[in-house]
Amino acid sequence: MKKNALGLLLLGSINLLFAQEKILSDNLSGFSNKANNWSIVGSASANPFLDNNLETTAGKGVLANIHEHGTYGGEYELVSDFTHGDLDISFDFMIAKGSNSGIYLQGNYEIQLFDSWGKKNPIYGDCGGIYQRWDESKPDGQKGYQGYAPRINAAKAPGLWQHMDISFQAAKFDAQGNKIANAEILSVKLNGMLIHENVELSGVTRGAMTAKDVAKGPLRFQGDHGSLALKNIMISNFDKPSASLENLTYKVSYAPYDPSADPKNLATDDAGELKELSWEFMKQPNEYSYTIKGDFTAPADGKYTFNQFSSANNTLSIDGKEVLTNKYTGPNDERTGEIELKAGKHSLEIYNAKYDGWMSPTLGLFVTGPGFRKVALHSPSSMFGNKASDPILIDAKTNTNLRSFMDFDNGDGRIRIVHAISVGTPENIHFTYDLDKGALLQFWRGDFLDATPMWDSRGDGSSRPRGSLTLLNNDLTLSKTALAWPKDTVGTAYKPKGYTIDENNMPTFVYEIYGSKVNDKIRIKDGKNFERTITVEGSKDLFAKLTSASKIEKMSDNLYAIDNKSWYIKLEPNASVIISTNGNKKELKVAVKDQLTYELLF
Amino acid sequence: MKKLQILLLSLFCFAVQAQESPKEEDFYKIVTPPVPEGVLLEVGGVCTLPNGSVAVSTRRGDIWILENPLSRKPYYKLYASGLHEILGLEYRDGSFYCVQRGELTKLTDENGDGKADRYETVSAWPISGHYHEYSFGPKFAPDGSFFVSGNVAFGNEEWWRGEARVPTRGSVFKVFPDGHREEWATGMRSPAGLGMIDGELFYADNQGDWMGSGGIWHLKKGAFTGHPASLAWTTEDSPTKLTEEQFFAERDNRKIRNAAGAYIKPENVVNETPDMLWQLKEKYPQVQTPVVWLPHGILGISNSELIKDETKGAFGPFSNQVFIGDQGQSKIMRVFMEKVNGEYQGAAWDFRSGFQSGVMRMDWAKDGSLFVGETNRGWGSAGDANQGFQRLVWNGKMPFEMLKVKAMPDGFEVEFTLPVDRKSAEDLASISASSFNYKHHPVYGSPPIFREDLNIKGVKLSADGKKLRIVMDGLRKYFVHELNLDGIRAAGTYYSLIHPTVYYTLNNIPDGEKMSTSELKTTDSGKAKPASASKTVKKLVSPDGQGQAKASAAAPTFDEVKPLLQKHTCLACHSQDKKVIGPAFKDIAKRKYSDAKIAELIAVPQPKNWPDYATPMAPMPHVPKADVMKIASYINGLR
Question: What ipTM was predicted for this assembly?
Answer without folding.
Answer: 0.87
